[in-house]
Amino acid sequence: MLHLLPTLLPDPIWGLTAEFQADPRPEKLDLIVGVYRDENGQTPTLDVVKAAECQLAETAATKAYRPLAGNASFNASMTRLLLGDTSTELERAATIQTVGGTGALRLLGDFIKLAQPAATIWTTDPGYINHRPIFETSGLRVRDYPWRQSAEGIDVDLIFHCLADARPGDVLLIHGCCHNPSGIDPSAEDWTEIAAFCAKRELVPLVDIAYQGFGEGLSEDTAGLHRLVETLPLVLCSASCSKNMGLYCDRLGVAMVVAPEERAIAKTMRNLENLGRTNYSMPPEHSAAVANLVFNAKAQWVAELDAIRNRVSYLRKELCDTLERQGAPASFQALRRHKGMFSLLPLSPTQMQRLRSEYGIYGSDTGRVNIAGLRAADLSMAATAIADVAARP
Question: What's this model's pTM, rounded to 2 decimal places?
Answer without folding.
Answer: 0.96
